[in-house]
Structure formats: structure tokens, C-alpha cells
């Protein structure tokens, strides 16, 4: 089998490495960040994604690092009950924990941190290491995330835009709050639309909370921890008391503001010996909760076709033709969920699940 270089050690790059490892295929993975530098949020992972994860992470270990949510309960911002739905084995886990689990099967010699790969079209149209030497591999798997610079260089006409929704996400340790929310995923919605506050439990003493806001209505000028705390306290002051209480009792060392981007139209998933997976191939907005599952399916299928097919080009084209139609469904569902979110509550339809199913 040919030599493979993987660019980016997020969920897609690391899961690709895990599948390559399973088939004993030679690879090396390059990551821009420091090994321990893991800012982030958390994931809701539907059952399908869990089935892919069980193939590469010992189930007991995976389950110890997160929590199954029982039901999704929707409230107005003042706490009026609106609707609820059972969640069929939806798992919640922090990005940090999942990346660490995926990285533990990769030997130190096969991963380089603090290595930014870049595309040099001025000189030789090739991918380079930070010292200027060429990346030497038969196949290059690009998993450098939704704002992939490598993709932008290969597909110069792409149109990327910021989505009309941003998220403030925080992960806190607080047993008292964790006990009070059991295993429900609670989400409060402003009656005028465009603003929500969600709470879910990651473990016995850890919760993740997040706020989704219409960034045309609500603007945050500075994203320091102190400013985000002040902003959250101001905006959610008059919501159901559990919301300002959580905001007040949180520490802000893990708080993060996420702006979300999407492509107006998907690019091809491959060009010559370079193939894209995960958010680099297809940014998905958080409303779909399908980013991780899609990344896992991409790496599983790409590896399978590379093993089964003699021609790399044929393997790439099978991968693309199987994955693209499904991704297009999630993109369209994501846009529907986004439009719903922006509407006043009384105009939103009944489809309340915060997950896109195909
Ligand atoms: C607020 C928020 C909430 C979300 N919630 C969910 C959810 O509930 N469920 C879900 O399934 N998905 C969710 N998602 C989506 C999910 O985060 C992504 O789909 C998933 O993380 C994609 O992983 P990735 O590996 O493709 O990209 P990334 O996680 O972006 O990883 C890319 C990696 O490449 C590295 N890199 C970048 N450029 C270079 C370079 N030039 N050289 C080397 N390395 C490079 C980066 O440092 C990074 O480590 C959410 C996203 C956001 C923003």
C-alpha cells in the first residue's frame, strides 16, 4: 500500500489514522497545534456515530468519558415547557476527551505536532512543511477543518460565508448543577427567536452549556473570558433562574466563542492525489450535530475503498459518490434548522430535534 500523509489531527484526521492503523497501512499525521492545546466544545453524537467509534475505541473507555442523554426538553426563555422528545442513544462528550481517546492509539512516531502544512502555488504547486520542503507522499488526506486553507488554494472560486449563528460554549465542573439536570438535554428559547441556551451533562460533575445567537442581532465585540462572562450575564439576566444561575456560577477558563462558516456550494472531494475529509470537505453547521459522525464515516469509507480498489482515483471517486449525497441532505437540513432558529417561537414548526437525520 502507498504512503499516506494526513494533514490535521482533529476528529477526522485522527479517525482516519485509526482506520489506517487497523489495516496496517503506512501513514504519518501532521498537526498545527501543540499536543495538549485543545480548546473546544462538546459533541452530541447520534447512535450511528457511536457505532463507528466502537470500531476504533474500546466501548467501555468511550462510555466512561461521556454520557448518554435521555431526553431533549424544550422551554421558552422564561421556563414554560414547550415540548420533549426521547433521545435514542445520543451521547455527549467533550471534544477534548474524544480527541485524546482517538490519539491514544497513534504511536508517537506517526504524529508530528506543531507542524503547519501549507500550499505553495507560487513555486511548485505542492504541499510543503513549515521548513519549505515538500510533503512526500503518494496520497495526501486533508482534514484541516472547515476553513481549510489548502482547499481554498486548490479551489480558488469557492465561496465561504459566515453563518448567521454563533455560539458561546463553556464546560464547567459543578456537581450541584450536574445533579440538578439529571440526564436531560435542556434548551431554553427566546420567544422572539435567534437566541437559545442549552445545558447538558458530560459526566457526574461536568456540564456543558452553550448559547446560540443570531449574530446580526447580538454582537460580541471582544471575546476575552471576562467580556464573554459579562455579556452572558447581561443577555440572559431575565431568563428562567436556572440560566443566570449557571452563568454566574461558572468559571470561564474554558469558555469559547465559535463563529460558524459554510460553503455556498461543495467543491469536489478530491483532486489528483489529494483527498478531503471531515469539515475540510464539507463544513456542517452545529445545528445538524452530524459533524463528528460524518467525519467518522468519511474516514471509514475512504480507508475501505483504498484497501479494496487497485486504483487510487477510483477509490476517491467511490468515496465521493457515496458521501456527497448524504452530506447534501445534512446541509439542507442544517439550513432548515437555522431558519427555524431565527424565527419567533410561535412560528417555528414542530420538528424539535437538534439533530439532522438523513
Ligand atoms: C460550536 C460547535 C458545536 C458543534 N457541535 C457538534 C455536535 O454536537 N456534534 C457534532 O457531531 N459536531 C458538532 N460540531 C461540528 C464538529 O466540531 C466538526 O464537524 C468536527 O470537529 C470536524 O472535525 P475535523 O477534524 O474535520 O476538523 P477540526 O476539528 O477543525 O480539525 C482540524 C485540525 O486541523 C489542524 N490544522 C488546520 N490547518 C492545518 C495545517 N495547515 N497543517 C496542519 N494542521 C492543521 C487544526 O489545528 C485542527 O486540529 C460543532 C461545531 C461547533 C463549531
From TrEMBL:
This is Monooxygenase. Residues 3-326 form the FAD-binding domain. Belongs to the 3-hydroxybenzoate 6-hydroxylase family. GO terms for molecular function: FAD binding; monooxygenase activity. Keywords: Monooxygenase, Oxidoreductase. InterPro entries: FAD-bd, FAD/NAD-bd_sf, MOase. It comes from the Bacteria. Pfam families: FAD_binding_3. It comes from Chryseobacterium culicis.
Amino acid at each position: 500500500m502507498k504512503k499516506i500523509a494526513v494533514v490535521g489531527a482533529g476528529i477526522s484526521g485522527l479517525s482516519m489514522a485509526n482506520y489506517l492503523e487497523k489495516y496496517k497501512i503506512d501513514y504519518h499525521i501532521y498537526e498545527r497545534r501543540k499536543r495538549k492545546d485543545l480548546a473546544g466544545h462538546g459533541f452530541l453524537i447520534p447512535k450511528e456515530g457511536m457505532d463507528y467509534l466502537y470500531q476504533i475505541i474500546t466501548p467501555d473507555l468511550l462510555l466512561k468519558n461521556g454520557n448518554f442523554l435521555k431526553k431533549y426538553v424544550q422551554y421558552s426563555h422564561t421556563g414554560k415547557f414547550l415540548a420533549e422528545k426521547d433521545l435514542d442513544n445520543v451521547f455527549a462528550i467533550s471534544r477534548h476527551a474524544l480527541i485524546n481517546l482517538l490519539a491514544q492509539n497513534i504511536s508517537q512516531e506517526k504524529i508530528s505536532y506543531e507542524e503547519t502544512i501549507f500550499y505553495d502555488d507560487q513555486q511548485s504547486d505542492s504541499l510543503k512543511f513549515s521548513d519549505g520542503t515538500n510533503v512526500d507522499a503518494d496520497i495526501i488526506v486533508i482534514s484541516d477543518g472547515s476553513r481549510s486553507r489548502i482547499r481554498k488554494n486548490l479551489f480558488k472560486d469557492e465561496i465561504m460565508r459566515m453563518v448567521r449563528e454563533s455560539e458561546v460554549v463553556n464546560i464547567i465542573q459543578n456537581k450541584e448543577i450536574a445533579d440538578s439536570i439529571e440526564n436531560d438535554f435542556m434548551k431554553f428559547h427566546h420567544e422572539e427567536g435567534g437566541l437559545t441556551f442549552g445545558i447538558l451533562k458530560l459526566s457526574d460533575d461536568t456540564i456543558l452549556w452553550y448559547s446560540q445567537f443570531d449574530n446580526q442581532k447580538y454582537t460580541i465585540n471582544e471575546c476575552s473570558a471576562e467580556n464573554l462572562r459579562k455579556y452572558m450575564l447581561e443577555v440572559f439576566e431575565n431568563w428562567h433562574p436556572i440560566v443566570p444561575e449557571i452563568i454566574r456560577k461558572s468559571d470561564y477558563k474554558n469558555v469559547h466563542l465559535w463563529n460558524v462558516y459554510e460553503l455556498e456550494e461543495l467543491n469536489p472531494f478530491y483532486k489528483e492525489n489529494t483527498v478531503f475529509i471531515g469539515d475540510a470537505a464539507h463544513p456542517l453547521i452545529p445545528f445538524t450535530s452530524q459533524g463528528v459522525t460524518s467525519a467518522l464515516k468519511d474516514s471509514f469509507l475512504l480507508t475501505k475503498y483504498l484497501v479494496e480498489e487497485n486504483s487510487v482515483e477510483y477509490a476517491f471517486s467511490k468515496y465521493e459518490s457515496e458521501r456527497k449525497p448524504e452530506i447534501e441532505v445534512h446541509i439542507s437540513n442544517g439550513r432548515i434548522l437555522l431558519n427555524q432558529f431565527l424565527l419567533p417561537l410561535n412560528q417555528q414548526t414542530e420538528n424539535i430535534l437538534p439533530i439532522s437525520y438523513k
